[in-house]
């Protein structure tokens, strides 16, 4: 459906859990987050109901996320349920990949259309450091398993970190630039599109400096030559893609901070606790769980979702290029309460 600023909201990111088997430094505290009791998390039937009503409002693509979605038992079954909804054209997944090898067949046989795998570095020691104990070998096994499935769209997502002071998890030297040069090889070899995502000041991300897309492009062009911009719409989201000479797949950049793309934002988010969030940065949302569990009928749920979609804020205020904008209640974005939860709780 079209929101108050003329944007077509057709994409919903659905978090299925706030739990994760990793502890990425910019996403989760070392001790993890206090897990939400199981009964507070939406059941698969409840998620499917929200998605069915969402499809009636024009949602066409669903991305399953978390936390780590693959720690939730039975995820392939949910993929099948969502693929069976009239109007839903695509169900995709974002994962750290470490549990993917074991689950890829079940996911694909239930209709999964695409998978994004988050791998910030191929260097085993640095990966362990960033994820606080994860194994890049396991993530790469997941990537290989996904890349071997004919017709499955596979992307690798990397959030480049800048080193600051004693923080060893970032990179900013020429030696470390090698990280991104090596990751880009995955695209050269044709295993996956590789996308570099700017760190957003959300949750723990506020304490880390990222490296911008323009900077990473410069690093890659020194090695791989001049990249040509890809034109036309590619994928569901805001990534800008380029093609390097001799590469079989593309390199993408998602630069929410340095190149704000709110004017064409098409997404809303459903948290694992059933909170419908129209914008990542603001706390505001609609408590669908209370409606779902309070006996509301579909028309009531639809009306609540329609209002949330319509009132999507004009833009985030991550700091650059933000223009004042208002929602339909005449409330300026600057007056919105900012989100304080970690990314794993929001559903990144
Ligand atoms: N566990 C899954 C994964 O890692 O792909 C799904 C959830 S995770 C929150 C989704 C994506 O959000 C990951 O690619 C992660 O790197 C990214 N992310 C987390 N915090 C972020 C932040 N502050 N800024 C930008 N991206 C962030
Ligand atoms: Fe887990 Fe993904 Fe957050 Fe890393 S980015 S801690 S894998 S939810």
From TrEMBL:
Q: Which GO terms describe its molecular function?
A: 4 iron, 4 sulfur cluster binding; cyclic pyranopterin monophosphate synthase activity; GTP 3',8'-cyclase activity; GTP binding; metal ion binding
Q: Sorted alphabetically, which NCBIfam families does this protein's record hold?
A: moaA
Which organism is this entry from? Answer: Candidatus Mediterraneibacter tabaqchaliae
Q: Which part of the chain is the Radical SAM core domain?
A: 4-239
Q: Which SUPFAM superfamilies does the protein's record reference? A: Radical SAM enzymes
Q: Is the keyword 4Fe-4S assigned to this protein?
A: yes
Highest taxon in the source lineage: Bacteria
Q: Needs which cofactor? A: [4Fe-4S] cluster
- Where does the record place the region Disordered? 316-348
* Reactions performed catalytically: GTP + AH2 + S-adenosyl-L-methionine = (8S)-3',8-cyclo-7,8-dihydroguanosine 5'-triphosphate + 5'-deoxyadenosine + L-methionine + A + H(+)
List the InterPro entries: Aldolase_TIM (IPR013785), Elp3/MiaA/NifB-like_rSAM (IPR006638), MoaA (IPR013483), MoaA-like (IPR040064), MoaA_NifB_PqqE_Fe-S-bd_CS (IPR000385), MoaA_twitch (IPR010505), MoCo_biosynth_MoaA/MoaC (IPR050105), rSAM (IPR007197)
Write the record's keywords in alphabetical order, separated by commas.
4Fe-4S, GTP-binding, Iron, Iron-sulfur, Lyase, Metal-binding, Molybdenum cofactor biosynthesis, Nucleotide-binding, S-adenosyl-L-methionine
On whether Zinc is a keyword of this UniProt record, the answer is no
Which EC number applies? 4.1.99.22
Compositional bias (Basic and acidic residues): 338-348
- Biological process per Gene Ontology, one example term: Mo-molybdopterin cofactor biosynthetic process
What protein does this entry describe?
A: GTP 3',8-cyclase
Q: Which SMART domains match?
A: Elp3 (SM00729)
